[in-house]
Amino acid sequence: MGMQRSYRATVHTGRGVRGLIADRIDTCVGLPRLTPLEQTAPWVLGAFDLRGDLVPVIGLGVLHGEPIPWAAAADLVLVVVAAGFPLALHSARPVRIEPLSQSVPRWDRGHLQAGESAPGWLGYMDLSQLPLTARNVGGHADAERRLAQFEQRLSAQALNRLEQRARRYGDFAGQSPVASRTPTPAQQR
């Protein structure tokens, strides 16, 4: 019987570096164009299609009280598996990934809440406990507002680059749920 291996990683937020613990690391790719997700927590910036899976993109800084970051065409998303589901984490710069030592015993994840750290890994958040849905949120308008705030400093050229990435990461037919979105007037500058 083999041991399950987990990973710890760090991502760069607007105001610093945040640590996380994930069951598995899938990939790290350039930020694609996102689509809004209704009834989600404030730290869910949007989602994108990765090989047929809808992957929510999380702003860990927002979870820890930072404002919604401004996206840049050079930003990255680290796609991990947490609690059996894909999840992407926005990062302004390259990330650091390392396996948890096999000699370190696994902790009981059941007692951890969002924002809490696993024993022995101060500052690292266990993503299997991260809530993505939210009660009493503004629905589609709230999700659109968050995404518009995230994308507000992107030029039309940068948005086009993100659109191309979204199509490339999506299903094999080149279809993407965000392909029909158009830039806002502020983004067309």
UniProtKB/TrEMBL annotation:
<dbReference type="InterPro" id="IPR036061">
    <property type="entry name" value="CheW-like_dom_sf"/>
</dbReference>
<feature type="domain" description="CheW-like">
    <location>
        <begin position="20"/>
        <end position="100"/>
    </location>
</feature>
<dbReference type="Pfam" id="PF01584">
    <property type="entry name" value="CheW"/>
</dbReference>
<dbReference type="InterPro" id="IPR002545">
    <property type="entry name" value="CheW-lke_dom"/>
</dbReference>
<feature type="compositionally biased region" description="Polar residues">
    <location>
        <begin position="177"/>
        <end position="189"/>
    </location>
</feature>
<protein>
    <recommendedName>
        <fullName>CheW-like domain-containing protein</fullName>
    </recommendedName>
</protein>
<feature type="region of interest" description="Disordered">
    <location>
        <begin position="170"/>
        <end position="189"/>
    </location>
</feature>
